[in-house]
Amino acid sequence: MQKGINAIWKSLIWGESVSLAVLDTTALVNEAIERHKLTPVAAAALGRTMTATAYLCSWLKEGTGALSVTVDGGGPCGKVFAVGDGNLYLRGFVQEPAADLPPRADGKLDVGGLVGKKGTLTVIRDDGDGIPFAGTCALVSGEIAEDFSAYFLTSEQRPTAIALGVKMGTDGKCLAAGGLFLQPLPGADDLILSRTEEEIAKYRNISTQIEEMGAEKLLLQVENSPYEKREIFYRCHCSRERAAAAVLSLGREDAMKLIAERGEICVHCDYCNTDHRFGEEDTKKIFAEKA
Ligand SMILES: [Zn+2]
Predict the structure, then answer these.
(1) H and E: helices and strands count for the chain
(2) Distance from the alpha carbon of residue 91 to the mean position of ligand 1, in angstroms
(3) Which of 33, 42, 74, 245 has its CA 20 to 30 A from that of 94?
(4) All domains in the chain, ordered by first residue
């Protein structure tokens, strides 16, 4: 299913005062487009959100940590959802995948218009210790990068300079997607903060830069430091077993009523756009196994 590159490169730069991350999420966005039949501008909204979510996930504990992101801006695409974990397994969807808007005057996709900016960005994070952290901030522009910057500053007290981009081809596929993050370590002085702002201004066309140069070279161009690379995956946690548990939770009477009415029970997963279908025999078996 995966085509192209999906990975995050991370290093410590400027005398180990700033964490630098560059992500290539081209394949992730193409899989989202394939699964959800997204318009180009909806693909950009979801792609930017999933890229930022992948970055957040890179700080989680492998194996146990998980988090979810909701961007609720009141725009035509409805809410944008992205979920991921410490293994960098990501998934996401928008409420209205067919929502569309004409490009902005500068020719760029109107992500801010599609997402809207009258609302909030919410992150719910659980590092595996069972104590979830929830942070919410008001949206700045609905363009996603600025909104995540505001989130990092107000909810995590970590000023973070962010560039995000999704470049779409005329065939509706993503040519390149990704992001660049500069996050000073705690205790960094104002000089470092303003340097991250100066640096991030060079990446206004981050998707084109990733397309032309590649994420790894982009990272090394900022500073040639040792780095770590991790792969990112589009992977859903749903399964036929989990869907069967949902059927079971209906109770035998209601489940059999649905079967009588529709001939089957369909459990839909929004994150991977998959229908888990159970016919009469399947449903009887689910309740027989329980008995
Ligand atoms: Zn699923």
Answers:
(1) 10, 13
(2) 8
(3) 245
(4) 7-234 (3.55.30.10), 240-290 (3.90.1280.10)
Burial 124-144 (b: 16+ CB within 10 A, else e): ebbbeeeeeeeeebebbbbbb
pLDDT on residue 1: 44
12 CA distance to ligand 1 centroid (A)? Answer: 35
Q: In this predicted structure, what is the pLDDT of residue 63?
A: 85
**To 10 degrees, the CA torsion angle through 196, 202, 204, 206?**
-100
**Cα 52 to chain center, whole Å?**
6
Structure token pair of residue 243 = 């869907």
C-alpha 217 to ligand 1 mean position (Å): 34
CA of 17 to the centre of ligand 1 (A): 39
- Environment class of 171 (CB within 10 Å of its CB; exposed 0-12, middle 13-18, buried 19+): exposed
Q: Exposed (0-12), middle (13-18) or buried (19+): which is 261, by Cβ within 10 Å?
A: exposed
Beta carbons of 21 and 210 less than 8 angstroms apart: no
pLDDT, tens digit (0-9, with 9 covering 90-100), for 72-86: 999 999 999 999 999
Which residues fall within 8 angstroms of residue 52, CB to CB, at 6 or more apart? Answer: 69, 82, 144, 145, 148, 162, 164, 179
pTM above 0.85, yes or no: yes
Quote the longest CA-to-CA distance of the chain.
69
Rounded Cα–Cα distance for residues 65 and 129 (Å): 8
Tokens standing for 286?
């689910």
Instruction: Give every residue of the chain whose pLDDT is below 50, as ranges.
Output: 1-2
What is the spatial distance between Cα 199 and Cα 10, in angstroms, rounded to a whole number? 16
